TrEMBL record:
Residues 2-49 form the Helix-turn-helix domain. Pfam families: HTH_17. GO terms for molecular function: DNA binding. The gene is yoeD. It comes from the Bacteria. The lineage of its organism: Bacteria, Bacillati, Bacillota, Bacilli, Bacillales. This is Helix-turn-helix domain-containing protein. It comes from Compostibacillus humi.
Amino acid sequence: MYLTIQEIAEYLSMPETKISALVLQGRIRAVHDGEQYLINKEQFTTHFEQVEKYRRMIQEYLNEPIPEDIDVGDED
């Protein structure tokens, strides 16, 4: 599904100027139909899936208990 820059900005909760800049830099793929840029919404689905995957991995790492050191004890 192709959306305009304004619709993508709303979808990503980003300013339109930032989306326009990313399109002009080539960091977001877009098609120019002569009047406006159209952006395929599906290119962000993979990005959001990867972000969620890394978020879960980090959360699992942070929830992992710290192992007790075998050298802890009296050092007399």
